[in-house]
Inverse folding.
């Protein structure tokens, strides 16, 4: 789960980057192995009836009556983290990011032999969204209750907690979750169209268009309609970022001018060209929207001067995000994201690595964008900024090459893989040292194969949660919450801010590891030629 305090607060202090990050960027890692493990993780998070080719064998069928009480079939989908609630907004964001990863780096994923697994990870989510979208203006957005779920520590196969389902509709709108689900299905439709499944792609696109129309026509915050989500995934940024995000993905999926018109005409009113922030997450979509919009400057050959001007504004705000995370924005701490002493981006203590993985993905994509344009990243001066942090001196613009942007993204990824002061990989199962007591009910409890007896709601706390031993199962491929602001990590189940993993932590890294795998291979071939 994510801490939601201070969503739009930019860094209050910047710590100088130590030589640890320099050594991290030079470290050799097996990105292909990291990619394979990342995709395996999503099989651990599956809800529903598991397929015959399920590779994570310690998991079993679960949630087989989901939706029954409400008269709908809501079997399937993903558990978001270490509990058993199916939250629609983070699940949709996870699928959007998986789809974007495949769209950007599908060739590299296929070259690693992981193309089929990537498609399966997306389809497990989109199959569920099709079920959950039961009418043009109706979307089931949650199954299970977070409060009662957290009172229990048991396997998903045994769960006895409430499986009540919650929905948004015309009378109870939920624009954030409807628009994010539209974005996920639109992005996935492109993936499956490219993969040759035209029928499924068309079905996804049909749902995406209906969901976007629903989100836009009946505007309202989803956590006002589904109040039980407020303690877990409240909407701090509102729904306007999701509306722009969904429209942009629909433009990419359809080529429809109406969707691009929407993104351009609402750019100012909806904050797309106004918000410059340091966080991209399941809640705040602005940086992802801005980076994605800037790609149109390459892809759209016949843009009017008006449209190009607006898209350049999107790019400017997206580059504020990139510069902030690289600590390159002129003007001091107020305009840059904080760091740990070893140089890790540090937005907040609870599940910080979700912000890092999303940043690494956007920086990787934008570095490729800059390279294609043949232009550098420009970190510009804010003329209205307070200059007290710089001794009253006016700062100058900073110019950064595309290669440096990618190198910084690589250094952050390498930190996650173990090039850090703790010498711990925060990708479970990768390397020799990684978290062994992940805050995860299924992974920390004996499987049905090993212990066939029923494990009750509170029994698991005594038998498994409180045990100091390692989990009986490694949650391979999970990116945990990660270290604190001083680069320290406490590998204990109770330290959930550090040891709980979420689907949206790992999803962006599928694309990043694919790109770094390609980069590593090019470097290897270059070194061979130089011998």
């Amino acid at each position: 789960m994510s801490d939601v305090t201070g969503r739009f607060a930019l860094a209050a202090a910047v710590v100088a980057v130590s030589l640890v990050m320099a050594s991290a960027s030079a470290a050799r890692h097996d990105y292909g192995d990291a990619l394979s493990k990342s995709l395996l993780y999503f099989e651990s998070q599956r809800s529903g009836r598991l397929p015959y080719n399920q590779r994570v064998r310690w998991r079993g069928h679960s949630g087989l009556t989901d939706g029954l009480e409400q008269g709908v079939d809501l079997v399937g989908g993903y558990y978001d983290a270490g509990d058993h609630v199916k939250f629609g907004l983070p699940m949709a964001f996870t699928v959007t990011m998986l789809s974007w990863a495949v769209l950007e780096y599908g060739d590299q994923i296929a070259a690693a032999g992981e193309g089929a697994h990537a498609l399966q990870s997306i389809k497990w989510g989109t199959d569920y969204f099709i079920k959950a979208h039961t009418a043009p203006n109706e979307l089931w957005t949650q199954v299970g209750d977070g409060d009662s779920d957290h009172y229990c520590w048991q396997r998903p196969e045994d769960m006895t907690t409430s499986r009540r389902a919650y929905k948004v509709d015309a009378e109870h709108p939920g624009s954030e979750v409807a628009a994010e689900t539209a974005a996920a299905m639109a992005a996935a439709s492109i993936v499956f169209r490219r993969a040759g499944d035209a029928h499924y792609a068309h079905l996804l696109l049909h749902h995406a268009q209906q969901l976007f129309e629903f989100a836009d026509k009946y505007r309202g915050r989803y956590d006002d309609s589904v109040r039980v989500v407020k303690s877990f995934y409240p909407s701090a940024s509102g729904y306007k970022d999701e509306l722009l995000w969904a429209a942009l993905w629909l433009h990419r999926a359809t080529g429809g001018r109406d969707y691009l018109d929407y993104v351009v005409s609402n750019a100012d009113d909806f904050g797309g060209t106004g918000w410059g922030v340091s966080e991209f997450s399941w809640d705040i979509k602005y940086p992802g929207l801005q980076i994605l919009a800037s790609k149109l400057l390459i892809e759209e050959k016949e843009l009017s001067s008006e449209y190009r001007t607006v898209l350049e504004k999107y790019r400017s705000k997206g580059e504020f995000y990139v510069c902030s995370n690289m600590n390159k924005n002129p003007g001091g701490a107020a305009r840059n994201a904080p760091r740990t002493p070893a140089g890790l981006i540090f937005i907040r203590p609870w599940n910080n690595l979700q912000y890092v993985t999303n940043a690494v993905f956007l920086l990787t994509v934008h570095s490729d964008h800059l390279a294609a344009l043949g232009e550098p990243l420009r970190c510009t001066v804010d003329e209205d900024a307070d200059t007290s942090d710089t001794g009253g001196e006016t700062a100058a613009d900073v110019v950064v090459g595309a290669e440096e942007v990618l190198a910084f993204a690589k250094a952050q990824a390498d930190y996650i893989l173990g090039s850090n002061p703790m010498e711990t990989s925060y990708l479970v199962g990768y390397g020799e040292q990684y978290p062994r007591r992940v805050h995860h009910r299924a992974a920390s409890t004996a499987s049905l194969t090993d212990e066939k007896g029923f494990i009750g709601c509170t029994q698991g706390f005594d038998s498994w949660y409180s045990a100091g031993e390692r989990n009986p199962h490694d949650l391979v491929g999970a990116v945990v919450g990660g270290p604190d602001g001083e680069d320290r990590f406490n590998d204990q189940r109770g330290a959930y801010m550090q040891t709980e993993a979420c689907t949206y932590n790992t999803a962006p890294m599928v694309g990043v590891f694919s790109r770094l795998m390609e980069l590593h291979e090019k470097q290897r071939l270059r070194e061979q030629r130089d011998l």
